[in-house]
Amino acid sequence: MKGLVLITGASGFVGRHVTAAFGQAGWETVPLDGRAAGDLRDATEARGLLRLHRPDVVVHLAANCGGIGINRAKPAEFFRDNLLMGVNVIDACLHAGVSRVVVAGSVCAYPLAPPVPFREESLHDGYPEPTNAPYGLAKRALLTMLDAYRSQHGLSSCYLLPTNLYGPGDYFEPARSHVIPALIRKFADAADRRTPSVPLWGTGQATRDFLYVTDAAEAFVRAAEHNGVPGPVNLGTGREVSIREVAEMVAHVCRYAGEIVWQPSEPDGQPRRVLDSGRALRELGWRATTPLEIGLRETVAWWRERACAA
């Protein structure tokens, strides 16, 4: 075994894939979530968990997150919960003598309209897109904390910035789902019911960079195994695709032939989003390998299988 890695948020969408990737890479894993994780918003509980398990590496994935709707509805909870969990886990890593901590940031931490493609040096150049700013700023603050703890205490860390993630096991519940699972559920249901039209938020003109979850999981393993990369490090495909184009692709895979009705009165979110992942390639030897078309087919197949079994 390469060592013991403790993973917060391990039963979540990304956490399950990251836990599997570490196991396949020869690590012993301590997947924490639910009751096993306690309440990471409590500093005493966070320190107690790390003293109990004594991991070599900690990967912090636990988050309170969701799509535009829930970000607008619960900005206070999203800021408070994500800031407290991150601060307590990082501080507990220092006191437990952890050799390295890898923290999942968020592309939502970027300013509203940085130069495209987004590069890490633009991260602090402005305020995030307003609908998810509380979440994004809480995540951005953790990078500052990691820099401070490395400078003053020598805590080794890496801060990864994944773009929009998707794949099997994603959250398809309407209250929590992000773009791709929300589209899959809408079009799959509409195809089954032969609904003549499907309404979608926004204009469809906003762009995103969609990253398949297993590609992202591999980056977390590499970050844990490379001690010289403090971060931030972008994780993306470099492919900028409009929400309209993705909706049409999902509709095709779901075999939905009806009309797509855009609702411009609803928010688009950040106007453009695509990441330059050159640093991940240079420092971690990582690049995304799953084409969007293949990832969408696999995600739709997973959802169809799950829906049929329900």
Relevant terms:
alpha/beta, two-stranded parallel ribbon, Rossmann fold, 44% helix, 310 residues, globular, 6-stranded parallel β-sheet
CATH level 1 name of the domain at 4-166 and 211-239 and 273-289: Alpha Beta
Radius of gyration: 19 Å
Q: For the record, give the distance between the C-alpha atoms at the N and C termini, rounded to a whole number.
A: 38 Å
Helical content band: 40-55%
Question: How would you sum up the major sheet?
Answer: 6 strands, parallel
**What overall geometry do the principal axes of the alpha carbons give?**
globular
Strand order of the largest sheet: 2-1-3-4-5-10
Q: Count of helices?
A: 10
Low-confidence stretches at least 5 residues in length (pLDDT < 50)? none
- Tell me the fraction of residues in β-strands, as a range: 15-25%
Name given to the CATH architecture of the domain at 4-166 and 211-239 and 273-289: 3-Layer(aba) Sandwich
Order of helices and strands: EHEHEHHEHEEHEEEHEEHEHH
What's the CATH topology label of the domain at 4-166 and 211-239 and 273-289? Rossmann fold
- E-strand count: 12
Q: Could you say which structural class the secondary elements and strand pairing correspond to?
A: alpha/beta
Task: Find the CATH superfamily of the domain at 4-166 and 211-239 and 273-289.
Answer: NAD(P)-binding Rossmann-like Domain
Q: What's the rounded overall pLDDT mean?
A: 94
